[in-house]
Amino acid sequence: MASRTDLAYTVIDGGSITTPKGFKAGGLHCGLKKTTRHDLGAIVCEVPAAAAGVYTLNQVQAAPLKVTKESVGEAGTLRAVLVNSGNANACTGAQGEEDAYRMRDDFAAQLGVTPHQVAVASTGVIGETLKMDRVSSGMAELPARLAATPDAADDFCQAILTTDLVEKSVCVALPIGGKTVHIAGAAKGSGMIHPNMATMLGFVTTDAAIGSEPLAALLRQATDVTFNMITVDGDTSTNDMLLAMASGLAGNEALSEAHPDYAAFASALIYVCEVLAKAIARDGEGATKLVEVKVRGARSDASARAIAKTVIGSSLVKSAVFGADANWGRIIAAVGRAGEPIDPETIDIRIGAIVTLEQSRPVAFDEEAALAYLKGDTVEIHVDLHVGEGEAVAWGCDLTYDYVRINAAYRT
Amino acid sequence: MASRTDLAYTVIDGGSITTPKGFKAGGLHCGLKKTTRHDLGAIVCEVPAAAAGVYTLNQVQAAPLKVTKESVGEAGTLRAVLVNSGNANACTGAQGEEDAYRMRDDFAAQLGVTPHQVAVASTGVIGETLKMDRVSSGMAELPARLAATPDAADDFCQAILTTDLVEKSVCVALPIGGKTVHIAGAAKGSGMIHPNMATMLGFVTTDAAIGSEPLAALLRQATDVTFNMITVDGDTSTNDMLLAMASGLAGNEALSEAHPDYAAFASALIYVCEVLAKAIARDGEGATKLVEVKVRGARSDASARAIAKTVIGSSLVKSAVFGADANWGRIIAAVGRAGEPIDPETIDIRIGAIVTLEQSRPVAFDEEAALAYLKGDTVEIHVDLHVGEGEAVAWGCDLTYDYVRINAAYRT
C-alpha cells in the first residue's frame, strides 16, 4: 500500500507481519477449503511476546475465542497463533471446544512451548465440526514452513481468507527512543462484517518492547476508530478477533504512557489498524468500491461515530453508490434516523467535492461530474451537521449484485 | 386476501377503504410519475371523522408531515386526506412547506371544508420540489372522480404506490353492540422500509363511532405489533405516516375502554394493520418471498421484538433465504448480536417444520426438504431462546438481485 512519510512513522513497502524482529509465519492447504487456497497458517515468535486481544461482543462466540481468551489471559504473553479458514468452529458444542483445545495443545507440543502460549482462531462456515484429521496433518507440516520471509508471510495472509479477494497486510517503522520499531498487521474479512469492539480476524506484530497492559489499552483505542468503524453488511460475526503480539526485540526502553514516544507508537498502531480496516471494507463481499463517510460538526465524537455508521450501513445508500447515483436524499434520511442529536435544518452534504445540500437545502450540481466521481474506486461522503465539534470517519462498500450472489449460495 | 372467520371479525372479500360507511375515494394520473400510473389520490369522509396519526421518528421529516400533524392536532377530526406519489416533498425547504399547505388549502376549498380538516401525504423522490401546476390540475379533477365503489378505492390504492408491485388493501367487519362496524385499510411501501413508530403510508377507515383519543391509543398499540415489526432494508423513511379516520356512521355507542366490544375492535384493527404490514414486507423491493420470524422464550416481549427485528434485518439471512439456503448459522449469529439477554447454549432454531438447531447444537436435517420449503413464497423462521416467556413476530423479505437493481438506478 502507498508510502506515507509525512507522519512520525514510515510505511515499509514490501513489509509484512514477519518484518518486526522475532516473528516467523507460514501457511499451507490442509483440506478445509474446497479450493486449493491455503487454509491453515501460523505466526510464531521466537520469544514470549506481550499479547493483547479484542474479541467480538456477539453473545454467541465460537470455541476458539474461549481458548484464546484463556491463553492471552493466562500470562499476557504468546509464542504463537494458529489460524484455520474454511470452518468457523462455531456452534459446534463440546466437540468444537475439544477440537479448539486440541489445536492449541498439539501445536504447542510441536513448537515445544506451553499450551497457554498458543492462541487459536477460526473463520468460515458456522455449525460444522472441524475435520481434525486434516488439521492435524497440516499442523504436523506447518512448523517446517515457518519463515521470516515475505513469501511465508503471504502464505499466512492467504491461509486466513474466506470470501476475500485480496490479502491484507501492512508494515510501518518508527523511531522509539533511538531504536527502530516495526508494527505490522494482517487481516481477513469480507462478509458478516460489522465489528463491535473487534473485527473478523486481525493480527498485529511488533518488535517494540511494551507490556501487555499498555498494549491492550492501545489496541482497544485503535480498534474504536478503525475496525469498529467499518461495516460490510451490518452483521457482527461470532468469531471476530484482533490479536497483537510484541516481541520486544527492537530493544527500546519499554513503552508506557510516560514514555516520550508513546503517542507516536499509538498513532502508528492506529495507522496499521486503519489500513487493514479500510482494506477489509474495500474487499467487502461483492464490493466494487470503498466508501468513506466523514461526519463533522456533531455534538460529540461518539455521536459522529453513530451517524457515520448509520450512513455507511444503509442498504439504500450502498445501492446508490453502486449505481453511481448521487442520491443525497438517502444520506440525509440515514442521518435523520441515527437517533443522535441533529438540527434537521443545518445539514451540509458533499459527495467528493460536489456539494449537494447546504443548510438542508438542495444545491444544483453537475450530474455528469457526480456520475464520473461516483464511478471511481473510492467514494467520499461528507456530512457537516453544524451542531458541535464532534467528528468521525467510517468505511464501507457498495451493495452489489455480487453481494447477493455470494451470499445466496455460500453454504450449499 | 384470505377469509378468516374464526375470530371476532370477518374479512370482507372485495371490501375496501370505501366499504366503511361515509367514505369515498379516488385517484388519477396528474403527471408526477414518469409512468401512466395514478399519482394523486384522496379519501374523503362525508362527515367529520375522528382522526389519529402515527408518524416517522426520523428527525428529518417531510413538509406534509408538519401540515398533517397540524391538521390532526387541531380538532382531532378530518374530512379528507390527499396523497401524491412520485415526489416525497422532503428536504424542499420553505417552498416545500408552501406547497404542502397549498395542497391542503386548495383541496379543502374544492371540498368546501376548512383547511385543518384536510391531511396531506407524499411519497417518492427526496429533494425535488413538487410540480404544483400538475398537482393543481389533478386536484381540480379529483372531486369528480371520488366514489364509494371498489374501482374508486383501487384508483386510490394505485395512486399511493412507488416501487410497489401490488396494491395493498383489506377490510373486516365485526359486531359492536349489535351494530355492524367495518374497518378497512390501504397502504404502500416497498423501499426505505424500517418503520419506527409508523410506516410508509397507511390509511385506515372505519365507520365505528370512537373518539380521536381512544382511536389514537389503539392505532399506536396496533402499530407496535404490526407496522413497527416489518423491515425491508433497515432504512426509516422521512415520510412515514399512518392515518386512521372513523366516521361513526355505523351507529354504535361510542367505543371507549369501558365498552364491552373495545377489545374486539382492537383485535380487528390489529388484524387490518397486520395484513397491510405483511403485504408491504412481501412486496419489499425486489423481494421474491415473505419471511416471518417468530421469537419465543425471550426475557420479555420487548426483548423478543428486538431479536426478531435483528434477524429479519440481517442482509446475510435475507440473502440465504433468497438462495433457499437453510443457513441457520447466520440466524444464530444475528440472535447473538441483538444486544438482548440470551443463553448462547439454549437456542432452538426451526425453519418451517425443519429443526436445524436444538439447545444450540446442530441437528442433522433433510437438505432436500429444506430446499423445497425455502423455495416457497413464505418462509417461517422460529427461534426459541428458553430464557423467559417473551414472544414476538417480525416480517420481512429476501435480499435479491432486483433489490440492488431497483436501488442502484432509482433516482437517475
Automatic annotation (TrEMBL), chains A, B:
Which SUPFAM superfamilies does the UniProt entry name for this protein? DmpA/ArgJ-like (SSF56266)
| Cross-referenced CDD domains | OAT
Q: Which Gene Ontology cellular component terms are annotated?
A: cytoplasm
Molecular function (GO) terms for this protein are:
L-glutamate N-acetyltransferase activity; L-glutamate N-acetyltransferase activity, acting on acetyl-L-ornithine as donor
Q: Does the keyword Heme apply?
A: no
Marked site (Cleavage) residue numbers = 198-199
**Repeat among keywords:** no
Q: Which residues bind substrate?
A: 162, 188, 199, 285, 407, 412
Which keywords does UniProt give here? Acyltransferase, Amino-acid biosynthesis, Arginine biosynthesis, Autocatalytic cleavage, Cytoplasm, Multifunctional enzyme, Transferase
List the residue(s) that the UniProt entry marks as the site Involved in the stabilization of negative charge on the oxyanion by the formation of the oxyanion hole.
123-124
Q: Which GO BP terms apply?
A: L-arginine biosynthetic process; ornithine biosynthetic process
Q: Where in the cell is it found?
A: Cytoplasm
Catalysed reactions, semicolon-separated: L-glutamate + acetyl-CoA = N-acetyl-L-glutamate + CoA + H(+); N(2)-acetyl-L-ornithine + L-glutamate = N-acetyl-L-glutamate + L-ornithine
Q: Which domain of life is it from?
A: Bacteria
Q: Which residues are catalytic?
A: 199 (nucleophile)
Q: What is its EC number?
A: 2.3.1.35, 2.3.1.1
Pathway field of the UniProt record reads: Amino-acid biosynthesis; L-arginine biosynthesis; N(2)-acetyl-L-ornithine from L-glutamate: step 1/4; Amino-acid biosynthesis; L-arginine biosynthesis; L-ornithine and N-acetyl-L-glutamate from L-glutamate and N(2)-acetyl-L-ornithine (cyclic): step 1/1
Q: Name one Pfam family in it.
A: ArgJ
Tell me the protein family, please: Belongs to the ArgJ family.
| Subunit composition and interactions | Heterotetramer of two alpha and two beta chains.
As for what it does, the entry says:
Catalyzes two activities which are involved in the cyclic version of arginine biosynthesis: the synthesis of N-acetylglutamate from glutamate and acetyl-CoA as the acetyl donor, and of ornithine by transacetylation between N(2)-acetylornithine and glutamate.
Q: Note the HAMAP family from the entry.
A: ArgJ
**What is the name listed in the Swiss-Prot or TrEMBL entry for this protein?**
Arginine biosynthesis bifunctional protein ArgJ
